[in-house]
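For reference, the entry.
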Amino acid sequence: MKHLYLFLLACLPMMLQAQEFTFIPETDTVQDAEVNQKPVFYHIVRNDSSFDLDIQWRLFDHFGSLESWDDNICEGIELCYPPSTRTESFTLKSGDSVLIYHYINAYDVPGSGSSEVCFFDPADSAGTVICQIVYADVVMPDTLAIYLDGVYAFVIDGDTYEIYDGEYVTLGYNAPVLNPEYLSQNSPNPFSSQSTINYAFSGTDGEITVHDLTGKMIHSVKLKNNKGRIQLGSDLQAGLYFYSLKSNGVVIDTKRMQVLD
């Protein structure tokens, strides 16, 4: 009897440890989203014991035929695991808690799916497992911005457009050149990464130059064709600029553009 008592006494800390973490799941378990969005659900795991706890999570997806969907877990804001990581362990100190970011990543196609995360003590997985299932209902947006063949394009109600002189036109639209020498407003404008400029000129030597507000030329593009488009922006600092089309050294037109941070 004494040996049994000592054995139970030795096991008591482990038995208590298996019961001493609290899981506070996301209450909003169903989220509506659009394609290319990442619905996120927030769970809290808290160590209410007087000792450190080893806790393990395991991730299960229920996406069916939605092959372009995936899910992943982040432990706080500093440690995010890729979708290929389906289980991981972490140590939670006494009295500490961690915010779990539970993502469903809905790419390309609409649909409905769910993701399940389970937390448990690895030493007693059967006795301590706690799970939560979250759901995402994803639809196609009315307007979806994409980057296609070097051009910003927009999918609107299933049809694809680009912006030409501030207006939506069918992707691949060949704008009539009423004037043999033409410089479009850059699109998009303002922009933060890249912007497209259409041009046409009749001379033998074409060039587009970019100047800052002091008049200093900071960028120049020699034009190989009399009609076409170029992209600007990757090497420009945030600010206001003027860009000009030159034909045989003569300025044809000048317009203003803005670069954002």
